[in-house]
Structure formats: structure tokens, C-alpha cells
């Protein structure tokens, strides 16, 4: 007869801890692997689109990689369509990659250079941006647009184009259709400004300094401002004014989030999204002077690539039929562009 000790199971070998001190859970590792594989097709497609957009922008400097990427995404959505295999990866780049790009945008802003513009220039920027941001949603309401669409149009036109639309989308709890409608108007009118604004400046007899401030205070995208500034010989001044507007992205997003918290006592959103707080942290870090010159020189290129990938993903949500049926979003974008152009031009005439 076997003893009781013979009937006991043999002790199992102790599990070796991982180098970090904890044993990885097989199920968790499997989920991560599955997520990576699910995202891979869409991410690879976005990478190809970014490569094409970057190459095209080198031949046509007036077209930034972000603008080209939005157009490519829209073209794909309205021709071949976006298959289910691509959707997880495109959602990843339009959300996660976007947050990294917005945070890195803060490293491009040199606060001392912005402050050196003087109070007159900053007054023009604040008046034009604030007026457009406040008035555009009111006009959108009169046009019968969804609040999310109106808010995103206001943000994109008044601050920094497609990047601002993408950054505000989560805070505003806007839908993909809202973002697509806002993006289409921002891209259309911002690109048109590259041709129209210098012609108007010449007809009005603006001095180079005045044209630089008007360009930086009125045109949507940083790349579009750079294209106008380079052609007019006011590149550095125009881009610096534009970056003064970009700084306002964080306060605007925080303001919208604060208003949502006040109106939603249960399940309140954060005062400021973490990626916007990271943007402010990057601005502060750049202001300390501790960031090496090699890093600040490389950041614009890295940010441009990441933003282009994110905007390609957002562009796949733009459907021409929806835009044609809802042309009021394009109308609102045109009205908002006219407002910021007129207010900033008046400020330039009075103060610069």
C-alpha cells in the first residue's frame, strides 16, 4: 500500500521571474501581439502615404506633407475605400501618433523670440484669434451645423489648421464626420491663401513687416505661412508670428475642457488632455535653453512626419458626398477665414 506521501503531487518547479522582477502574463502578451498585428496594415499604409506626401512637398514646397496626406486619405476613402483590415491602424495613427506630434510641436516654439515680436504684434494675434474662435461657433449655429463641427472649424482657422482640428477633436467630443468636415475647409482655404494673400498684400501696398504679421496672424498652417514668407522674403518673421498663435492651442483646448467639466458634473473630462499638457511641458523645456540645437533642428521634420501620418488617418474619414450634402461646413470655413483675415489686417494697419 502506498503511503500518503506517495500520493502527493510532485512540487512544480518555481517560475523564473522576468528581469524586471515580475512574470509576464501570457494572456496580456498575446493581447499586445494581437493589437500590433491588427494595427500593422493601417500603419504601413500611413507610412507609405507619408513618404509620398513628403516627396511631393519637396517638389511643391507650398504643399506641406500634412496637407498632401489629408488629400491622399480623402482620395483613398472616395475611390478604393478603406477596408476593415486597415481601420485599426488608421485609428491608431489618427489618435496615438497625433498626440505625440502635438506634444513635440511645443519644442518648435521659442518663447523669447515670440515675446520679442512686441506688444503690437501680439495684440493683433490675440484679437484675430480670439474674435474668430468666439464668433465662428455662433455663426455655425445660425447655419444649422453641429456644435462639434463649428468648434473644430473655429479651432482650425483661428489657431493652426489641421493640427488644431485634430488636437481639439477629443476634448470637444466631436465625431469623425465633424473632424472631416472641419479639415476639408481648413485645407481648402489655407491652401488658397498661399496664392491670394500675397496678391492682396501687394495691391494694398503693405510693407514687408506688415505682410509678415498679416501672414502669421491669418494663414492656417505653419507650412503655408512658411511658403508665403519664403516667397516674400519675410520667412523668419512670419513663422515666428504664426508660432505665437500656436501657443494659444493649449489655452483654447483647456478652456473648452473646463466648460465641458462645468456642464457635466458626472463623468467629467480632465481639465486638460495629457498630450496638451505635454505640449506645454515641451514649450517650457525649450524655454530653459537646455534642449540641444541638434534636437530643435530635427524636431520640425519629425513632427511633420508624425502629423502627416495622423492626418492621413483623419483624411480617410472625408467623404465627398457628405461634404456636398453638407456644404455649410465649407461655407463656415470661408466665413471664419474672412473674419481672421479682416481682423488681423485691420490690426496690422493700426498697430504695425
UniProtKB/TrEMBL annotation:
Biased composition regions of type Low complexity, renumbered to the chain: 1-10, 18-28
Localization per Swiss-Prot or TrEMBL: Cell membrane
Family: Belongs to the UPF0324 family.
PANTHER family tied to this protein: INNER MEMBRANE PROTEIN YEIH-RELATED, UPF0324 INNER MEMBRANE PROTEIN YEIH
Stored Pfam families: Cons_hypoth698 (PF03601)
Predominant place of localization: membrane
Chain ranges passing through the membrane: 34-53, 59-77, 97-115, 151-168, 188-206, 271-291, 297-318, 330-351
Coiled-coil ranges from the UniProt annotation: none
InterPro entries linked to this entry: UPF0324_pro
Segments for region (Disordered): 1-28
Protein name, entry field: Conserved hypothetical integral membrane protein
Originating species: Nonomuraea pusilla
Keywords: Cell membrane, Membrane, Transmembrane, Transmembrane helix
Record keyword Cell wall biogenesis/degradation present: no
Annotated membrane topology: Multi-pass membrane protein
Gene Ontology CC entries for this record: plasma membrane
